[in-house]
Amino acid sequence: MASPIWKGDMTPLTDPFGRSFPYLRLSLTEACNFRCGYCLPDGYQPSGSQYFLTVDECQRVAAAFAAAGASKIRLTGGEPTLRRDFTDIAAVVAAVPGIRTLAMTTNGYRLQRDVARWRAAGINQLNVSIDSLDPRSFAVITGSDSLHQILDGLELALTLGFNAVKVNAVILRDYTDHDWQAFLALVRDKPLELRFIELMQTANLSSTMLQQQQSGERLRNRLLAAGWQPVSKGYDDGPAEHYRHPDYAGRIGLILPYGRDFCDSCNRLRVSARGKLHLCLFGTHGVELRDLLQQDEQQLLLLARIRQALKEKRISHFLHEGDAGITSHLAAIGG
Ligand code: SAM
Ligand code: SF4
Q1: How many other C-beta atoms are found inside a 10 Å radius of the C-beta of residue 221?
Q2: Which residues contact ligand 2 via a Cβ below 6 A?
Q3: How far away, in angstroms, is 330 Cα from ligand 1 center?
Q4: Residue-wise pLDDT tens for the chain (335 aa)?
Q5: 329: CA distance to ligand 1 center in Å?
Q6: Mutational test site, ligand 2, from 25, 38, 40, max ligand atoms within 8 Å of CB
Q7: Of the bound ligands, which one is closest to the alpha carbon of residue 209?
Q8: What is the rounded distance in angstroms from the CA atom of residue 317 to the CA atom of residue 278?
Q9: Mutate to test the pocket of ligand 1, among 26, 29, 168 (most ligand atoms within 8 A of CB)
Q10: Which of 27, 86, 105, 110 for mutating ligand 1's site (highest number of atoms within 8 Å of CB)?
């Protein structure tokens, strides 16, 4: 018999524009050991309480979203793998009925050491951020001298039976073009997806970093000219565009938040490491959930609060107008 706590509105989460939200990005920490110039250029500076969501709170968030139709959860941060209980969190979230895809995004620093444990805990999709394949450029961008170690970890990950292994690269004027051939070589033989992401403005992004911004349309044109073919989108693919080429084992994705219609296919919500619901990466406020994450019996109230908040979701971000909302950097909210 179903538990009484699930008697209530279990219809999928939707917003006033008819979008539904099968995908939750759950941030586990704001802390990070890297200093990416567009995210935490001075390194992580703790502020306020460092009491991030507990294993039980993560389980309750996941269960509530799954009960309202979410089938995919991404664990992110900050750097989620800095949490000592990262695999415990992965295991409880993976066990939530209805969650078919448990993804994570990592800077890859602990990949080589821990990826087999993450896989065993139930992670079945892995995103590793690598903005440059040149060790010196990588160190300049991230403040970390660990490119070789991360690439070795990536090789290992490809042997572990993940449903998908993806590499995220932020498009940077001084680096992406320079590394283009190396990026293509990465997907020639490896069955991974390389995703180029337009650099998004955040409240703390410096003017120097802003100069690194470059439109991803150039990459789209370059791919099409070189014989890459667009792949039609699946039901829950979200805003990424995908391209394939017969000579390449991997595929390329483009995430162009400054492109037209980007928000039309928005399918994700975010919960921050402090337990706030964010309707958009570039929203104006977060909705407190933590008071309703303390007992299983509160989960109907939790879902009701999420549904109420969704009525306020805006049709689009306003990045084009230079409005990055309250997000100081993506590590604060879960990129
Ligand atoms: N620390 C992990 C990592 O770097 O993969 C997870 C968190 S990080 C905030 C998630 C993703 O957001 C990374 O791929 C990162 O490159 C990207 N990111 C961070 N700031 C960004 C920005 N301003 N514009 C575009 N992407 C950004
Ligand atoms: Fe850390 Fe990821 Fe931000 Fe880089 S992008 S500083 S790795 S949280």
Answers
A1: 10
A2: 32, 34, 36, 39-40, 77-79, 107, 129, 331
A3: 6
A4: 344 445 567 788 999 898 999 999 999 999 999 999 999 999 999 988 889 999 999 999 999 999 999 999 999 999 999 999 999 999 999 999 999 999 999 999 999 999 999 999 999 999 999 999 999 999 999 999 999 999 999 999 999 999 999 999 999 999 999 999 999 999 999 999 999 999 998 888 899 999 999 999 999 999 999 999 999 877 666 788 999 999 999 999 999 988 777 788 888 999 999 999 999 887 778 999 999 999 999 999 999 999 999 998 887 776 666 666 667 888 888 77
A5: 9
A6: 40
A7: 1
A8: 12
A9: 168
A10: 105
Q: What is the pTM of this model?
A: 0.94
For ligand 2, what atom is nearest to the CA of residue 44?
6
Structure tokens belonging to residue 181? 């051939």
User: CA of 239: how far to CAs of 80, 195, 235, 334, in Å?
Assistant: 23, 12, 11, 17
Euclidean distance between CA atoms 183 and 226, whole angstroms: 14
Nearest CA to ligand 1 atom 26: 199
C-alpha 27/C-alpha 55 separation (Å) is 12
| Ligand 1 midpoint to CA 38 (Å) | 8
Q: Contact, 143 vs 39, CB < 8 A?
A: no
236 within 8 A of 70, measured Cβ to Cβ? no
Ordered domains of the chain (ranges, CATH)? 23-166+262-332 (3.20.20.70)
Determine the distance separating the centroid of ligand 2 and the alpha carbon of 331, expressed in angstroms: 6
